[in-house]
Amino acid sequence: MRPILHTFLVGLCLALLAGCGVTKPSRYYLLTPVDEVTAAAVSSPAAALGIGPVAFPAYLDRPEIVVRSSGNELNYDGSHRWAEPLKTAFSRTLAENLSIMLPTDRTVIHPWPRSTLLNYQVTVNVTRFDASASGTVILTAAWELIRSGDDTVMKRSKATYTETAGSSIYAAIVAAQSRVVEQLSLDIAAAINSAGLPTAQPR
Fold first, then answer.
1. Is residue 96 within 8 Å of residue 49, measured between CB atoms?
2. What is the pTM of this model?
3. Spatial distance between the Cα atoms of 140 and 49, rounded to a whole number of angstroms
């Protein structure tokens, strides 16, 4: 066999072997709500709550879990993914947390039918929700509690919540992300508890 042909065939075989390499399997994650057993009880009368709109930054609008390798650099690991859009998971987890933390008739997620009767609406604007390379999760969010009867803003707040995952393993990071959503939920639940049930009819 001619040397040139031999070299070509060897290179071709190596390329085919590389293409047949084992692809790293993807793993999928979900945020989890608080445990009903450990949730603190509050004395607010039952209210109907609307959660949303919830706004998220564009850099989180993708299936991969985001980890910051530095202040300005982000890493997206294709093998570690959210099982659903992160904004959807966040909204649902927040709604589930509030339904556990508060005695509520019902909790609905935006968008809801115009005929839906509500006592309060909670809007949230998330500007950061990711982890550092060391595993510290940071959630920065601004939120408003709006009385649905007359659109009065009962409470307005912006806060940053941090939680140490204790590991750079993605499962630990996602668990820490669930805990910072719990911290946000507790603040919103406290505001609703302080506001009490509106005297006006819900709409």
1. no
2. 0.84
3. 22
**What's the 3-state SS for the chain?**
CCHHHHHHHHHHHHHHHHHCCCCCCCEEECCCCCCCCCCCCCCCCCEEEEEEEEECCHHHCCCEEEEECCCCCEEEEEEEEECCCHHHHHHHHHHHHHHHHCCEEEEEECCCCCCCCCCEEEEEEEEEEEEECCCEEEEEEEEEEEECCCCEEEEEEEEEEEEECCCCCHHHHHHHHHHHHHHHHHHHHHHHHHHCCCCCCCC
Q: Are 65 and 29 in contact (CB under 8 A)?
A: yes
CA distance 141 to 128: 7
Residue 155 is predicted with a pLDDT of 96
On whether residue 6 sits in a domain, the answer given is: no
Please check whether residue 75 lies inside any domain of the structure: yes
Kindly report the CATH number assigned to the domain that includes residue 78.
3.40.50.10610
**Which pLDDT value is given to residue 41?**
52
Q: Give pLDDT tens digits for 117-150.
A: 999 999 999 999 999 988 899 999 999 999 998 9
Q: Which domain holds residue 184?
A: 27-195
- 99 assigned to some structural domain: yes
Between 53 and 201, name the one with better pLDDT.
Answer: 53
Out of 66-70, 97-101, 183-187, pick the least confident: 66-70
